[in-house]
Structure formats: structure tokens, C-alpha cells
Amino acid sequence: MLSFKAVVLRRKRGLSGFSRFCSLGFFLRQSSSKLIEDKFWEKMTRPYGIKVNKRKERAERYDEEEDEEEEQRKLEQKQKAEESAKKKAKKESTSKAKAEEEEDEESEEESDDDDDDNDVGIPISLADPKPSKEKPGVIFVLEKASLEVAKVGKTYHLLNSEDHANFLKRNGREPNNFRPDITHQALLMILDSPVKQAGRLKAVYVRTELGVLIEVKPHVRIPRTYKRFAGLMCQLLQNLSITAKDSREKLLRVIKNPVTKYLPVGSRKIGFSRSSDKLIDMQKHIATHCNESDTVFVLGAMSHGKIECDYIEDFVAVSGYPLSAAYCVARICEALSSNWSIK
């Protein structure tokens, strides 16, 4: 602790250390503010002349660029005008040349006409070509086809006697009546025949035991394996049509009954049955009945039984023995190809 005397002495000598420090800070603040003011005035007095000159130079540059652009535009317009004038001159010259050629041709034609008038001869009348008569074709109808879809488990299947025998028995149905493979084989035989390749096959219709009528286009490709065929028929019976991949054409579709409204007018309807008393030679029968108009052949696509249709005009038998639908189709197509000279 300082004594009272020491404090008095320090006051007499001058200011204390703290007061000296405060006075020094004030001096420094004053000096720094003067420096800032000097710098400010230097900046305020220096830049304006330089900036104005720069702006003027830039404006001058912009004016020069605009002048150059205008000159370029004028040159382009002159070039375009010259090109259009050249084109017009070319067109006029070509039109004049064409007109001269036409006048020459007219004068030549007139001279030819004068020469023809002087000649004496028989006028030739060109007869109109006769329209080519459409060749007779064939239509197949498969009756009583066993094509039925049912939900077995969690998915839908085309019922057949081999895979769904237990399901059919539980529902009180006879498994032997469910033979969709017969329809598959018959369709393959029809669509693989030379008659179809020659373009004589007009249409194929399939009617199921439940009365569903299906139209099959002649240019459709039926799957070779039964598994794929079953999937296709299941899709057809659920969606009512099958369209081509590349186009929207319906290759297979379910249509309204009866089948007679889709058959050509004046066509002969022939049904096949082993129980018929009329046993014929297929080749001779076709030679006498199938050369003038379209012929409709009706076959049964079931394992056993007889087809009974009102629109059939004549029932015939191809053999004295029971034949499958596919083999019967093969005999018919072979007789047709030999009769129409299809090789």
C-alpha cells in the first residue's frame, strides 16, 4: 500500500500512469481518423476523369461494331438480291425453252395426224382385259371341340383328361370327353397343308361343346406343342381375342353364332361321319363337286360321337374304319391338292 505522502508526490510530479495511457489512446484515435479522411479525399478527387474516359472509349467501340454489323447486313442483302435475280432469269429461260419444245411437239403431232388421215386401214379396238375369276376355295368347320377353361387351384387351365382327371371326377364330369389335343392336331394338319400354302384355304371355324364359336385366320401359326396351345386357348377364351404382335389384326377371336352367316353364299356343305351309308372316293367326289364353288367341310373334333348340324347338306364317309379328325383332314387336303394340281 502506498502512503498518503507518496500519492501526493505523484500528483505533484504529473499525471498518473492510467491517465497517461488514456491520453495516449485519444491521440492515436485522432491520428487514425485524420489518415482515413486523407485517404477518402484522395479517392474522391482521383477516379472520375479516368472512368468517364473509359466509358467514352467503350461507347465508341460499340458504335464501330454496330457500323460493321450494318455493313455486313447490307452486303448479305445485296448477295440475296443478286441470287434471286439469277434464279428468276433461269426460270424464265427454262420456261421459254419448254414453251418452244411444246410448240415443236404440237406441230409434229399435227403433221402426224395429217399423214394418218391420208392412210387407209382397219381401226383396232383394244378389248378390256377380263377380270380374273376367283378360284374356288375350301372352308373347314370343327364341331364339338372340347375346349373348356376352369379354375384349378389358384390358376385357370384348359381342361384335359390327363392333367385334370381328379378335378373332373370331383365335379361329376367324364374325363374321357375332354380331349383338346384332337382340335390341336386337326388345326395343325389344316394349316400345314399345301392347300393353305397355295391360298385356297378361305377360313377355319371351331365350335366348342358349350357353343362358343371361334374364328381362326388362315395365316395364323398355331403353336406346335400342346402346352403352348393350351395356354393360347385359355387366353383366347378369357380375353375373347388374340392379336398379332406387329399389328392389331385379330388372328383368333370369339364370334357370334350361327356359323352359317360367315359361310359364303352358294357353297356346298359336306359333313363327315363313319356311320354314314354313303362311302365315297374322296378324290372323285371332290372332282365332281369342288371345282365350281367354295366347299365347306364339317368334321367332329371329339373323341367319340356324331355331329348333328342343320346346315349340312350331305353326310359322307371317307373310310369304313373309324379315323381321327387329323387323318380325315389329311385325306381331304391330299384329294384337294391333287384335284387342283397343287404340288
UniProtKB/TrEMBL annotation:
Residues 71-99 have a biased composition (Basic and acidic residues). GO terms for cellular component: small-subunit processome. The keyword rRNA processing applies. Keywords: Methyltransferase, Nucleus, Ribosome biogenesis, RNA-binding, rRNA processing, rRNA-binding, S-adenosyl-L-methionine, Transferase. It is found in: Nucleus, Nucleolus. The keyword rRNA-binding applies. GO terms for biological process: rRNA base methylation. One of its GO terms (molecular function) is rRNA binding. Gene3D superfamilies: 3.40.1280.10. Residues 53-132 are annotated as: Disordered. Its main location: nucleus. Residues 100-119 have a biased composition (Acidic residues). PANTHER family: NEP1/MRA1 (PTHR12636), RIBOSOMAL RNA SMALL SUBUNIT METHYLTRANSFERASE NEP1 (PTHR12636:SF5). Belongs to the class IV-like SAM-binding methyltransferase superfamily. RNA methyltransferase NEP1 family. This is Ribosomal RNA small subunit methyltransferase NEP1. The lineage of its organism: Eukaryota, Viridiplantae, Streptophyta, Embryophyta, Tracheophyta.
